[in-house]
């Protein structure tokens, strides 16, 4: 159920958001993340390889929690669900995409950045919302103030955009934030070059910061 998936993301705390240029790097990437203690990944559908990469990872590492990001169309919702994605997110809120995700039973966190966005999300009963782009908008200070009127509705945020090793734990301290994510854990270039040691170090550093 959607609730279970979001609970899992909440217990993971951090999600690696990736752009993958070659599906042949998918298994190495997933193995590196898992070995570093990162059990969830969001593959953005910005490249043609992303859907295949989702399939590869779900096949080889079924224990990994795999989501699709940058889901912009109804078709992408269906492709993501068919590939085995267990959740999906988008940068903004497109009613068509929200409706298709509901139809497909795919837990979906639309992107929001204003009170009107939040109210539109609530009209679809979406309570888990991507907050994007978190840092340029004003970070925690903005999110806290923007979401204050809606706290009683039980909404919870997944901030992305400009999140990094130095600021992600501050977001996670807010009780209206269920997880944080970003590309800093597995940079696009590092994935393309198969720099697994670098990615492993970035993920382990984040894990350490979570514990301290
Ligand atoms: C996203 O899709 O959420 C963003 O690309 C992640 O933002 P970042 O690259 O600033 O981490």
From TrEMBL:
It catalyses: 2-dehydro-3-deoxy-6-phospho-D-gluconate = D-glyceraldehyde 3-phosphate + pyruvate. Transmembrane segments: none annotated. Signal peptide: none annotated. It is an enzyme of class 4 (lyase). The keyword Endoplasmic reticulum does not apply. GO terms for molecular function: 2-dehydro-3-deoxy-phosphogluconate aldolase activity. The keyword Lyase applies. Belongs to the KHG/KDPG aldolase family. Homotrimer. This is 2-dehydro-3-deoxy-phosphogluconate aldolase.
